[in-house]
Fold this sequence. Notes:
six-stranded parallel β-sheet; Rossmann fold; 7 helices; alpha/beta; 203 residues; single chain
Amino acid sequence: MSSDAKILVLYYSLKGRTAELARFAARGAESVGAEAIVRTVPPVSATTEATDAPIPDSGPPFATLDDLADCDGLLLGSPTRFGNMAAALKYFLDSTSGIWLKGVLVDKPFGVFTSTGSMHGGQETTLLTMALPLIHHGMLWTGIPYTEPQVTATRTGGGPYGASHVEVDWNRSLSDDERALASALGRRVAGLAAVLKSREPAP
């Protein structure tokens, strides 16, 4: 299947595991012909909310509001912070009220992914709270159905809410199931974005 859908893969990662999920989600999107645009966000100071320089030293560029407004679908990822998304990602989302007022994300699909440092570190609550601002934007939540065999087979991360990784002593890197589910999430968001875009009236 070919597609001209643009999928923004937007994430924050501190130790690299969320970034690894982002890479597999992007590959999943590309496998169905979409263009995966990978972006990150800078760290945020706990006292001043000042961010780093506008261009990172390495890795993908920092996201802009134009990146978000121009996408046909979104894959959003963050490590957990007490069962919630990281402050850096929330800081970026909190700046999107102008896009919300214009309704530019309405009826566009999104999927979410996360990583934790323990088996019960708040993966599902993080995925849920990441989804909330996107639902306010009118976006359509795309999960991972049980028709993906890894949803029931996984003994690490991943489930119907979205892709995830659990980092424990015996699972330092992404497991095969975690990689498969991240890719599946990318495919689903990209596939749905392509279908929805094809139904848009011509300008």
